[in-house]
Automatic annotation (TrEMBL):
One of the record's GO cellular component terms: plasma membrane
Main localization, broad class: membrane
Transmembrane segments: 274-295, 311-332
Membrane topology listed for this record: Multi-pass membrane protein
UniProt cross-references to InterPro entries, sorted A to Z: TMEM64
Coiled-coil regions, chain positions: none
Protein name, per record: Uncharacterized protein
Signal peptide: 1-17
Region feature Disordered, mapped onto this chain: 53-73
Alphabetical list of PANTHER family matching this protein: GOLGI APPARATUS MEMBRANE PROTEIN TVP38-RELATED
UniProt keywords, alphabetically: Cell membrane, Membrane, Signal, Transmembrane, Transmembrane helix
């Protein structure tokens, strides 16, 4: 009787309205408990159907997948940019915008500082009263030291000094340039070292110069916390090793970097000692001081259009336009080759951290 009823339900189960009833019968059929389970006077626990076990396993898998997805979503959400960093970026952009607006509105004040003709004219006006003063060259040296410290171009100033003071301007100009450069070097090494070195920690070119120049010195590691600006932190060599600190000091001075970068940038390289920077400044500054002073003196005597002046200016232009960029390119290329050939550059280099 039961089999007939089941067959009847299967035949009419094709109708969608009877499907729930057929499904219930099938589950009941699979869950029928045989009579032998009741033998012995006690009823055993009926076995769980295969379909019910499959449904339970699938439900557990779905629950586990949902939990894992929820965990991953939570992890992704926690990697948002901090609010403080966003505020600092907005503050920096806003400050730069305000500074640019102020500089644009006050351009009449600072534009003359980059006009060489106007600088030459103003310098002549200031130096003419000092021509008859015995201490005039000292005043001029102090002014040029401040000019050099600010990283401004000294060409028009030294030319005007040569026109007014003559050959006496050579010593005064060299003293002023050396004083201003050493003052910038000292401030950069004593007070700005830790802050600027932290900012340049990931600068590829700066770290490459520092590591390569350290290859000629003893192995050591200098950190911002243990660094002392008044004594040598590494045992450096004084020979002109291809990447020696002494050669690095000279290349920094003869490079096409702005004067401020030459002075303050050299102070951030711990391997460049004070006397190395002073020697590079004297040789580099003395060469061009003699040239610009001689040009000013020739102009004051009315022989600025002579062949010797033309040759000197041509040589200076060739050095600045051709030789200096080529030396700079060769230097950077040599540093990159050294970094590629050195398997462990950090083992024998001084890294600023």
């Amino acid at each position: 009787m039961i089999l007939r009823l089941g067959l009847f339900l299967v035949l009419i189960g094709r109708n969608h309205s009877c499907m729930p009833l057929v499904q219930a019968f099938r589950v009941h059929r699979y869950s029928v408990v045989p009579l032998q389970h009741f033998r012995g006077g006690a009823a055993n626990v009926p076995p769980v159907s295969q379909k019910a076990a499959h449904n339970a396993t699938t439900k557990d898998a779905i629950t586990t997948t949902t939990t894992t997805t929820t965990t991953k979503t939570t992890t992704i959400r926690t990697t948002k940019v901090p609010v403080g960093a966003t505020r600092r970026s907005i503050w920096t952009i806003g400050s730069l915008a305000v500074l640019s607006l102020i500089l644009f509105q006050q351009r009449a004040i600072w534009l003359p500082l980059i006009n060489k003709d106007l600088i030459l004219q103003r310098t002549l006006e200031l130096l003419e009263p000092l021509q008859s003063n015995r201490l005039g060259w000292i005043y001029y040296s102090c002014g040029l030291a401040l000019w050099e410290f600010c990283g401004l171009s000294t060409i028009p100033v030294e030319t005007a000094a040569g026109m007014v003071l003559g050959w006496k301007a050579v010593g005064a100009s060299l003293l002023g340039k050396l004083t201003g450069a050493m003052l910038a070097f000292g401030i950069g090494r004593c007070w700005l070292y830790q802050h600027v070195a932290t900012q340049l920690e990931h600068n590829e070119i700066f770290q490459l110069i520092n590591q390569a120049s350290s290859s000629g010195s003893a192995s050591s590691v200098v950190t911002a916390s243990s660094y002392s600006p008044f004594k040598s932190n590494t045992t450096t060599t004084t020979t002109l090793h291809p990447h020696s600190p002494l050669l690095t000091a000279f290349l920094m001075k003869f490079s096409c970097f702005p004067e401020m970068i030459k002075n303050f940038g050299s102070s951030l390289l711990p391997v460049i000692q004070w006397w190395m920077f002073a020697a590079a400044t004297l040789i580099h500054g003395g060469t061009f001081t003699v040239l610009w002073t001689w040009l000013g003196h020739q102009t004051s005597t009315g022989s600025s259009g002579s062949s010797s002046t033309t040759i000197a200016l041509s040589i200076a232009a060739f050095m600045g336009v051709v030789v200096t960029p080529l030396v700079m390119a060769w230097w950077i290329q040599d540093l990159k080759k050294w970094a590629e050939s050195n398997s462990k550059p950090q083992s024998s280099a001084t890294r600023i951290t």
